[in-house]
Amino acid sequence: RGIFLTQLKVFPLNVRIEEAKKYVRKRLKTVTDAMKSSLEEMAAGRLDALLAQLPDGEERRVRAKKLLDSRDARLTEIDEKAKAYLKDFASLFPDLSLAGVYRDFLTRCEDDDVREATLPTLEKGWVQGEDLAALCVICRAVYGLPVNHVRHIVMDECQDFSPAQLAVLRR
Questions:
Q1: In whole angstroms, what is the distance from residue 14 CA to residue 3 CA?
Q2: φ and ψ of 92, to 5 deg
Q3: Nearest-angstrom CA–CA distance, 61 and 21
């Protein structure tokens, strides 16, 4: 959490999420490798003790096979639990498609008129011109946008621009 909110704060949301996933994958690999190594050392120690205790024969082979099968099952269990953890971790993050984020925003919007006017067209896969300013703001927050240094903009029919559209142009 600290990495996500402090060290990665300067990056757009999707980059922060991917970096957090990389960090968790790396940390999980370190932990699972240590667990597997410890388990293998313990099983090797038990196998050595078993081989030293029992004379060569069927009982020795059966017990050694049981020990090694148990070790292999635990190693597989560690890998499966690591995969499940990564899957659960990835599910913590919402859909970051532009349409998904905008739909989520509109679903939570308190203005019924805006929601009722916009959601049906968005569900059809369309957006209206009035939606572009909000989509630009969301896109910048989620994906980041390259900085283009614009010195001048000439606008015709400026009275037709909404305050949100003008704010996007200023940025």
A1: 14
A2: -70, -20
A3: 44
Q: Say how far apart CA 83 and CA 24 lie, in whole Å.
A: 12
Residue type at position 99: A
What's the pTM value of the predicted model, to 2 decimals? 0.65
pLDDT at 109 over 90: no
106 touches 114 (CB < 8 A): yes
Q: Which residue has the higher pLDDT, 93 or 33?
A: 33
Q: State CA 9 to chain mean position distance.
A: 16
The answer on pLDDT for 149 being more than 70 is no
In 92-111, which ranges are continuous DSSP H helix? 98-108
- Ramachandran sector of residue 94 (left: φ over 0; alpha: ψ -120 to 50; beta: rest): beta
